[in-house]
Amino acid sequence: MFVESLKCGFNVAEVVKTFGIFVIDSKLLTSSATGKLSHDKALAMQSTKTMTFKKKLIRKFCAGLGMLSLLIAAGCRPSTGLEFPANEVELLKLQRHKYGPNEELDSKYKDQVAGVMAALFGTPDEPAFPFPANDASPFRALVSLGNLNASAGPVASVKDGKENLGLYRKHCANCHGLAGDGAGPVALTLNPYPRDFRLGKFKFKSTPLRVPPTDEDLVRVIRHGIPGTGMPAFPNMPPDEMEAIVDYVKYLAIRGEVERRLWDEVTSLAGEPLAGIPGSLDTAQTREAFRKVLVSDPTSPISDILFDDVLPRWVERDARVSAVPTAPAGVEPNDAEFNSLAGVGKELFLGKANCIQCHELPGHSATQAVNYDDWTNDWVKTPGIDVEDKRTFREFLKAGALPPRLLRPRNLTLPVYRGGDESRDLYLRIKNGIEGTPMPSSVSLNDEEIWALVAFVRSMPLK
Fold first, then answer.
1. pTM
2. What pLDDT sits at residue 59?
3. Whether 359 contacts 366, CB under 8 Å
4. How many Cβ atoms sit within 10 Å of the Cβ of residue 285?
């Protein structure tokens, strides 16, 4: 039976009963979600009495559908009752690290973590955020609840189609998954896999390693896509929708980081519950009350996770942006000095910078073995796992992990640059490295040397 509730407080089941859309004889309906009459039953309804009833039912259905349309137009959307799935891979990994054979965390503590997460961050239909009680706190500017609501929930349009809702599910969830775990319905068909936001790591950004991306970085990736991957470009997305999705990606990343820290905390307590957590967090009222208490209690261990660890990293990111100095003459292929500067870059590539360790050149073989990215290494390095023997990690696949895939260094002779093809993009990739991959930052190179490498990298597809 279609009993979803509406975000504005209406219950669809009550609307359905009021307008008589459903009848007690459920055999007349094959789809409770759409209200379509069974085709076979319809053919069997030959009597005048039955056909009259059918016409009345259709009229009532149309009236009910009209009412639902009005509710949606007023900003009310069906709530699917979905909950975010737990990060079972992280829990399994921690249990393998901390517990003995065949030991696992008691289910009541799993329920406690689920309750805390729902209290702090809400559900896929009705998001929440642990905004501090202090209105002047910089944490309050991280996301807008209005943007989260625009991205969350089922896809819908209101105000004559001028305002779109459910943006994340419409544009992102098919690849990135409901919880941002990178394991959406099509994830297995893509190489590389879609990004798992829950580690709080992003590859292509203007900030150094271990610093989250800026909003501008996220906008750039969404706007232009990532060439050579399944990440498409959205060049025509309206700015307000782009902003809403950016906030939702940050929300999923922050939520994922907090959940990982909570699992680490609870698996370290030797069977003791998290301190300061009420016995039940299974209703919206208890969750909201707990959230209000939490954000005003600096002594809570969960407050430490939020306000001393996870959120400060996101607040500080704009101040950590790497400046890109003015490029010297010779960086662009049309420059007269291009070949000369590229020659200097080649010497660095083969020598001081040691890029050849991973990236092959014609006539020069790479020496570094291929590796996994951080999203895979996060769990394949768990004790007892042998990536050559699927039986050793079958449990992890059942928990939601994607099969391990080797990460191969970029073939620089092809003009496909995932982080952007402008000279400043290449500068940042070399200067800062690429988060979550073996590509390191260039701490031993000065700006002139980095620009020379940029020129050489840009020259390779031309040869």
1. 0.84
2. 56
3. yes
4. 7
How confident is the model over 22-74, as pLDDT tens digits? 333 333 323 333 333 443 443 344 334 434 544 554 555 445 545 445 444 44
* Alpha carbon distance 94, 101 (integer Å): 12
**Cα 65 to the center of its chain, rounded Å:** 34
Structural domain boundaries in the chain: 5-79, 88-320, 338-371+406-462
CB-CB contact of 187 with 405 (8 Å): no
> In this structure, what is the dihedral angle of CA atoms 210, 212, 217, 218, given to the nearest 10 degrees?
130
Q: Which amino acid is at 53?
A: F
Q: Which CATH class is domain 338-371+406-462?
A: mainly alpha
Q: Which two tokens stand for residue 87?
A: 């990060």
Q: Report the C-alpha gap between 67 and 203 in whole angstroms.
A: 46
Pairing label, strands 78-79, 5-6: antiparallel
Cis peptide before 192 (omega within 30 of 0): yes
With a cut of 50, which residues of the chain have pLDDT below it? 1-51, 53-54, 57, 61-62, 65, 67-68, 70-75
Separation in Å, CA 393 to CA 12, 97, 292, 301, 390: 43, 14, 40, 32, 6
pLDDT at 277: 74
The CB-side HSE value for 278 (13 A sphere, CA atoms) comes to 16
Q: How far apart are CA 65 and CA 109, in angstroms?
A: 43
Among candidate residues 324, 323, 319, the one with its CA nearest the CA of residue 214: 319
Torsion sign, CA atoms 199, 205, 208, 211: negative
DSSP state of 126: S
